[in-house]
């Protein structure tokens, strides 16, 4: 009789090695997530030294939030995100195309990449404190503008809606455009050089090269950038919190959804905080799904559309 060969299965070791991650995720993410959803259906808050609840109230917390200023704070969050994201993606795309264009022969690319990425390493709190000092009424920016005669009285940047929102958007742009630029540079470098050479031989100019070659080829990375930016925008907290001292001034025009959530947590209103967290989760999921569907084409070469069109024509011909 032939002896059976002993086979060693290494598959189980993969599960053993990833087990710590799943245990950590279950304890620190999944259980708190389920607990947050559970709290959203309960009345649970503190009034003075007295603790109310938890009392089951069903969808009352969700209805109360819709009647509150949540929609206004959602609009604030959207406006602040747009102010920061649009310049970020435009500048990042321009820099990515510039640094990856072999025809330009730019020297010191690595140095410029490091300089571009450096603001991403600075803490948001440090950025907010720096801008608060720079743009205050007695700060260096007003002093310089007055000394060169452009203004006669200090500008209260943080006393106007436009000024405060612009500063927050500018800070978000500075902190994240470097990270976006590096990702887009990697995406453009992943495109075959032969495609660009064929494009040049066909006589395409720079705009056509960007619109018809670069942009479609880096669409997956653009989708990733947009989705992570939307999630980050909905979680915007530290910059407006520090710049406005948690008040969202002027007239709560810079109050974001996470700042609103933080106010509920500070007042120990866990039921409303849980309901607002669920709203944020649902909004994030919907927006990310829409972006994913818009930026990912399941039929990039149009073969499926052509096949469907041919089938329709064949049916019409038979009739």
TrEMBL record:
Subcellular location(s) per record: Cell membrane
Pfam families registered for this protein in UniProt: BPD_transp_1 (PF00528)
Q: Which CDD domains match?
A: TM_PBP2
GO CC terms: plasma membrane
ABC transmembrane type-1 domain: residues covered: 74-291
Ranges for region Disordered? 297-319
Q: Chief location of this protein? A: membrane
| Domain of life of the source | Bacteria
Coiled-coil residue spans: none
Q: Which UniProt keywords apply?
A: Cell membrane, Membrane, Transmembrane, Transmembrane helix, Transport
Q: How does it sit in the membrane?
A: Multi-pass membrane protein
InterPro entries from the entry? ABC_transporter_permease, MetI-like, MetI-like_sf
One example of a Gene Ontology biological process annotation: transmembrane transport
Q: Which family does it belong to?
A: Belongs to the binding-protein-dependent transport system permease family.
- Which PANTHER family does this UniProt record tie to the protein? ABC TRANSPORTER PERMEASE PROTEIN, INNER MEMBRANE ABC TRANSPORTER PERMEASE PROTEIN YCJO
Protein's name according to its UniProt entry: Sugar ABC transporter permease
This chain's source organism reads Roseburia porci
């Amino acid at each position: 009789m032939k002896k059976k060969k002993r086979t060693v299965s290494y598959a189980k070791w993969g599960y053993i090695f990833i087990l710590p991650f799943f245990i950590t995720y279950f304890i620190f993410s999944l259980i708190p997530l389920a607990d947050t959803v559970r709290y959203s259906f309960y009345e649970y808050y503190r009034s003075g030294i007295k603790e109310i609840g938890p009392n089951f109230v069903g969808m009352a917390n969700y209805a109360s939030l819709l009647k509150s200023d949540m929609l206004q704070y959602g609009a604030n969050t959207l406006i602040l995100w747009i102010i920061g994201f649009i310049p970020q993606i435009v500048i990042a795309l321009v820099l990515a195309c510039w640094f990856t264009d072999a025809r330009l022969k730019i020297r010191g690319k690595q140095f410029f990449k490091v300089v571009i990425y450096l603001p991403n390493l600075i803490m948001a709190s440090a950025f907010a404190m720096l801008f608060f000092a720079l743009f205050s009424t007695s700060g260096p920016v007003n002093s310089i503008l007055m000394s060169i005669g452009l203004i006669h009285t200090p500008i209260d940047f943080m006393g106007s809606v436009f000024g405060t929102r612009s500063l927050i958007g500018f800070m978000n742009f500075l902190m994240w455009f470097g990270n976006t630029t590096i990702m887009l540079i990697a995406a453009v470098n992943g495109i075959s050089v032969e495609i660009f050479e064929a494009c040049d031989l066909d006589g395409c100019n720079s705009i056509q090269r960007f619109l018809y070659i670069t942009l479609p080829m880096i669409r997956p990375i653009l989708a990733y950038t947009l989705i992570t930016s939307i999630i980050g925008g909905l979680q915007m907290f530290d910059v407006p919190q520090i710049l406005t001292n948690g008040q969202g001034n002027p007239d709560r025009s810079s109050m974001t959804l996470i700042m609103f959530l933080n106010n509920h947590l500070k007042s120990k209103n866990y039921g409303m905080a849980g309901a607002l967290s669920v709203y944020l989760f649902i909004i994030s999921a919907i927006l990310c799904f829409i972006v994913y569907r818009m930026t990912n084409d399941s039929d990039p070469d149009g073969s499926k559309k052509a096949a469907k069109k041919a089938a329709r024509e064949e049916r019409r011909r038979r009739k």
